[in-house]
């Protein structure tokens, strides 16, 4: 404990007084010409990317801060932001903070009623929206948001409506205000302190209305310092921003961490273009929630499946050497000369080429979080020589509070406590943590805050976990999501689901069985792998639903379920299952914006399917 507190004091001294405003000013002075933010070039422009340097970015931030000041943004007041990941998103957020305000990114998948709640709860004075698609989500509730002033639109500001302002006009207002009185903006940003709230993020709302989590400059810079120690990444590196800034991981990794590491952030505005963006950028670091890693694996498997058998055999042999190398590199293991030699040979012959093909040839840190990564997925990337390591945390802990590092990892765990962070396991198995990463509580929710943080400052995660003798933690499942069967057995649905998803034909899985005699599963067919799998076997089909009902597909999935059951205890084994010819997404409401299962939604939406598995 003394060592933990000593490290904590060291980091606290390192970040003492640090604010986003001061950090951006320092960075613009040290690396004025370093590339900061790159957006995809406009079609037919001949430009692949449009780039701002750190000096240019800070100048734009000051103009935006002056614009908000001119519109009347007060100290501590909030600016709601909804748009895709692009430089304007970061600049608007930083501009609000430099003006003394608070940035609040809202999930673009939120329903109008959720937007109304969040905007009202955070007290949004202004909103910055990307375009017509975002406005369409706000439009039904705009008349009920009495505290909202101007709505600034990057594109498509409705003409003749005084509530709206075009982004170009807003920037012009800021430039004029900054030129007329630069000292006023400087006074505002100098008044910002490390203890001020820098952002309010809202939980993605698997049940009920989302809860607001205020985070301070100190919170985020402690997380940045801890992440920097874990990753040991160089300055002036490259990375891709593609997850929403309403997600704590993206906000830390591609908004606040670059302000310390002077990273060059490339924006991927559409997840469908992530593969191409990876190939162009070849980032030094990459974070993906499990579903992102699963989808990339599925695409690569589909490509490999189309190669001649001789080539496939060579890849399998090379990947065996890759897996052995990554497994031997774990904490407490040893990479023998034989394992090293086999890996070097495989890497030179094939693995390096495959990593280059998917844009990971320069990656020094690849990580996952938000939900358990299936072991089959982790092993697949290990076969390519990639350590896709788990970190664990939540919005309420400013992101990760445990993590593996490239130099100290154990596969299948979420790593050790981050520097200066206390973690313990309660008598009922719940993971608790205490550190400067913890939020002070939920916005406007004192009762929920009392449930979250106890009198001794321990934050209750709601997750059941375990720890081994070397201090590596494992997360079993959400405390409230454990299945209790009719026989009184406690079962983790996530463990069942991860085994089921190891077959490439199965895209998503939900295990069910609360107060029932045995577990059942609702499965979805993988829309990217299944067509190629069918084509290779001469199966014709007109739709995914038709393919999901094909006897050969059902036989293959039955074998996959049987294989999963062999790795599960008897009480965990799936007795019956159904395969859906569709995908679950955030847009169709089965997944949260961070791509985790909305169990209650799925239970309700597919209640007849689930009931049929028990009655039929």
UniProtKB/TrEMBL annotation:
SUPFAM superfamilies: Acetyl-CoA synthetase-like (SSF56801). Keywords: Fatty acid metabolism, Ligase, Lipid metabolism. Gene3D superfamilies: 3.30.300.30, N-terminal domain of ligase-like. The keyword Coiled coil does not apply. Residues 26-443 form the AMP-dependent synthetase/ligase domain. Pfam families: AMP-binding, AMP-binding_C_3. It comes from the Bacteria. The keyword Transmembrane helix does not apply. It catalyses: a long-chain fatty acid + ATP + CoA = a long-chain fatty acyl-CoA + AMP + diphosphate. Belongs to the ATP-dependent AMP-binding enzyme family. This is Acyl-CoA synthetase.
């Amino acid at each position: 404990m003394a060592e933990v507190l000593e490290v904590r004091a060291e980091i606290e001294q390192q970040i003492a007084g640090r604010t986003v405003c001061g950090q951006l000013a320092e960075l613009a002075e040290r690396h004025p010409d370093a590339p900061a933010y790159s957006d995809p070039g406009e079609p037919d422009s001949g430009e692949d990317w449009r780039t701002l340097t750190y000096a240019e970015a800070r100048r734009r931030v000051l103009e935006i801060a002056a614009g908000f000041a001119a519109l009347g943004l007060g100290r501590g007041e909030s600016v709601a932001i909804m748009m895709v990941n692009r430089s304007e998103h970061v600049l608007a957020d930083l501009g609000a903070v430099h003006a003394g305000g608070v940035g609040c990114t809202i999930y673009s998948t939120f329903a109008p009623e959720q937007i109304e709640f969040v905007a009202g709860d955070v007290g949004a004075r202004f909103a910055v929206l990307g375009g017509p698609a975002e406005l369409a989500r706000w439009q039904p509730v705009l008349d009920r948001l009495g505290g909202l002033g101007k709505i600034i639109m990057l594109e498509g500001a409705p003409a003749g409506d005084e509530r709206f302002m075009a982004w170009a006009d807003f920037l012009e207002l800021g430039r004029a205000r900054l030129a007329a009185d630069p000292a006023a903006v400087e006074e505002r940003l100098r008044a910002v302190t490390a203890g001020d709230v820098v952002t309010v993020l809202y939980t993605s709302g698997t049940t009920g209305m989302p809860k607001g989590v205020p985070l301070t400059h100190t919170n985020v810079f402690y997380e940045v310092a801890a992440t920097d120690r874990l990753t040991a990444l160089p300055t002036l590196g490259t990375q891709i921003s593609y997850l929403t800034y309403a997600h704590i991981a993206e906000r830390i990794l591609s908004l606040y961490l670059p302000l310390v590491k002077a990273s060059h952030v490339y924006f991927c505005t559409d997840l469908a273009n992530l593969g191409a963006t990876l190939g162009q950028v070849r980032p030094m670091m990459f974070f993906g929630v499990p579903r992102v890693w699963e989808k990339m694996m599925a695409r690569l498997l589909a490509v490999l499946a189309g190669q001649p058998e001789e080539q496939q055999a060579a890849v399998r042999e090379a990947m065996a050497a890759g897996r052995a190398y990554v497994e031997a590199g774990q904490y407490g293991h040893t990479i023998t000369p034989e394992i090293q030699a086999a890996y070097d040979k495989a890497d030179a012959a094939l693995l390096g080429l495959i990593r280059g093909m998917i844009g990971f040839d320069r990656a020094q840190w690849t990580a996952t979080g938000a939900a358990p990564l299936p072991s089959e997925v982790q092993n697949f990337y290990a076969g390519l020589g990639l350590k896709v390591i788990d970190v664990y945390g939540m919005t309420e802990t400013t992101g990760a509070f445990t993590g593996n590092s490239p130099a100290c990892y154990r596969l299948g765990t979420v790593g050790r406590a981050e520097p200066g962070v206390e973690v313990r396991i309660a008598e009922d198995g719940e993971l608790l943590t205490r550190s400067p990463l913890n939020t002070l509580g939920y916005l406007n929710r004192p009762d929920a805050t009392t449930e979250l943080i106890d009198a001794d400052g321990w934050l209750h995660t709601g997750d059941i976990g375990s720890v081994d003798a070397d201090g590596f933690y494992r997360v079993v499942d959400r405390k409230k999501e454990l299945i209790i069967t009719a026989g009184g057995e406690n079962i983790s649905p996530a463990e069942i689901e991860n085994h089921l998803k190891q077959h490439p034909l199965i895209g998503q899985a939900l295990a069910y069985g609360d107060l029932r005699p045995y577990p059942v599963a609702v499965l979805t067919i993988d829309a990217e792998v299944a067509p190629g799998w069918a084509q290779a076997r001469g199966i014709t089909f007109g739709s995914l639903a038709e393919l999901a009902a094909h006897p050969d597909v059902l036989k293959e999935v039955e074998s996959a379920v049987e294989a999963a059951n062999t790795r599960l205890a008897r009480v965990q084994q799936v007795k019956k299952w159904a395969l859906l010819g569709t995908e679950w997404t955030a847009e169709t409401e089965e997944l949260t914006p961070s791509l985790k299962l909305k169990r209650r939604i799925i239970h309700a939406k597919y209640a007849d399917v689930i009931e049929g598995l028990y009655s039929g």
